[in-house]
Amino acid sequence: MAWGFESPGGQAPGDGFPLYRAPGRLPAGRRVYAVGDIHGLDERLGALHSLIAEDLRARPAAAATVVHLGDYIDRGPDSALVLARLAGLGRIGKARVVNLMGNHERTFLDALAGDAPAATDFLYNGGDTTLASLGIDPATPAAAWGARMPQMALGFLRGLALVHREGGYLFAHAGIRPGIAPEAQAPADLLSIRQPFLASEAELGAVVVHGHTPGEAPVIRANRIGVDTGAVYGGPLTAAVLEAETVGFLAA
Question: Is the pTM here over 0.70, yes or no?
Answer without folding.
Answer: yes
